[in-house]
User: Fold these one by one.
Assistant:
Number 1:
Amino acid sequence: MAQIPYVYIGKRILATIPILLGVTFLVVGAAEFIPGSRAERLSSKGALSQEQIAAIEKKYGWDKPFHERYFIYLKKVIVDGDWGQSSKTGQLVSDQLIKKIPATMELTVVAMVLATFFGVFIGIIAALKPFSWIDYASMVGALTGISFPVFWLGIMMQLLIYPYSGRLPFEMAATFEPVTNFYLIDTLFWGPDGSFIAAVQHIALPAMALATIPLAVIARMTRASMMEVLTKDYVRTATAKGLARHIVIIKHALKNALIPIVTIAGLQLAALLGGAVLTESVFDWPGLGKFIVESAVAKDVVALQGAVLFVAVIFTLMNLVVDVSYGFIDPRIRVGKD
């Protein structure tokens, strides 16, 4: 059994802490450059007098220097789990995020599974037949996938296939009560007849639209990595020993080509979590991306700040997961031992 690289993991975690602090500083600081008064954006009464603005700013601590407000906000988020209160709905931002995150995570995971499976498969096929028509066709397809704007692809899918919107048909969504807010799980175990099929139909098109760019990137990275590994001596030796072709490819070649593939797949997964804005808007998917758009349109700075901060933190943590995974895939890159 492989030894768990505790020292390596610990160093990666410690290196992530200042990055997370820097991310929160940038996100909170960016709100300072948004035009207009926070008090007026928070109020629904229209124009406020200077006295009313001063009272609201004092109530929420906005009259304090930036560095004080930053540490207060940091304490609330980390210690109290308080991400602020939405000026649009009056609800806690954390409660809204909890409702929106499962929809985005479900869409992102399905899209990433499709992108990884087909991307790795296409990349391996292209690497085994370099500079053949299969190789050229797969790479042209990958370039095409990168070139298509996601919002355009989503609109074309709705026009040419079926205009799905939301996570379930309207009449079914009106009466269905989710348990986990992951509809593929909820409809499979607790949904009425036909609801699981409906949930799959509704997630299929947005997932395919969202998967196009990471699929293309993973396919190209897999092809390049596999072509390099297939020229190594240990692959030639395994082939010369008479091992089956699929064993050589999977056990010897693909295993040693995984590091760049894992890197790009992890980064693409993190990017999808924050980049689903256009896809969710086109398909009316009630997730984090649509929430960011609605918050921006409504000038709900507190909600927008919380959503963007969450996406930034997730992206940073995904980088950490990818970095730590290196120590398990290839022990040679560990910087410490237990």
Number 2:
Amino acid sequence: MNFDEGYIKFSLSMTQGDIPKHPDWEKLNDARGSLHQLGLIGTYPNGIGFGNVSMRNSGLEFIITGTATGGIPILRERDYCLIQSFELEKNQVRAIGRTKASSESMTHGAIYSAKESIHSVIHFHNRKIFDSMLLDGTVPKTPKDVEYGTPQMAIAMDHIVRQSADNCGFFVTEGHDEGVFAYGPSIDDALEQTHLLLRRFA
């Protein structure tokens, strides 16, 4: 396991303030709570958190769970932040909230920028699913030499999603140990993709 996980690698411009109320926030938070119960979101023994969820707000804005919230069973609104803008090539993120943006904010943004029809993203960790997905020759994956939290990882994800004919899907990040992403036009669709992975690979 690479315990580089959980650390923000992009340049973050963070404004302290309340985020706008998203009409589906409760649904997103319920899904996040269920993923925590399944152990797909949580913390490693060293205290580093893993896993996060997000939902598009408008345009390329989206709300996402804050950094260092993996160990909290049920989140509050203040545990989320709003990503207002991001630049993949410059590795820059601008956000507002009461907690700092997730270290995976850039990668979630890459998925949203790839297809307008995608409105929710789930990122989780699971050793068995991760290893099984890598062994399956049909599962999309990011290159092994592309590391977590880099612009190259975000760009690789963008390419995977753009090449897919569907607006629901999943992929594994070979260079980001145990990392799996699922996405869809709603949180229910992204959650359905996650449960599909559990049935198929766990």
